[in-house]
Sequence to fold (170 residues):
Amino acid sequence: MKIKADQNAGEAFASAFDAHHDEIFRHCYFHVFDRETAVDLAQETFMNVWLYLTKGNDIDNIRALLYRTAGNLCLNYKRKHKTVSLDQLLAEGFDVGEDDPKQTKDPIAEQQALRALAQIQENYRVAVTLRYIEGLEPAAIGEITKQSSNTVSAHITRGLKALRSFLKDE
Fold:
């Protein structure tokens, strides 16, 4: 979705916010594994993109810019703050968030999957979560991460292999 920096930019941005807020929050969450921090990072993502737009810059692909901005903010956050292990979070009562009553969940399998995700390399984790949690195609992921779709596909394949290996060991 393109947004031109004109008088209709506010409406277009509000529409983009409604369309992408949840997925940007999830993207941040799977980087930091903390709900409140993910909410803050998602808000900061939209604020930074809004400021970019209000400075008169046009946006060719709002979704890619949001993901790229969120990824950079998450990376900066992780560099500035001590990383906590997922095992420690689980021991402290870690909660993924609100349950959707329409979905049947296996909490043990969910915890194992989150633990496995936290163990794989970050570039693999990003590719796998964008592909299977957000449902993006490798070409779209490549646009977000500034990589070729072949590289993204390789990261997805390697990430899945690492996840299977970790889950097999458990």
Q: What stands out?
A: The mean pLDDT is 85. The first helix runs from residue 9 to 32. The helical segments are 9-32, 35-54, 62-80, 86-91, 107-119, 122-133, 138-145, 149-169.
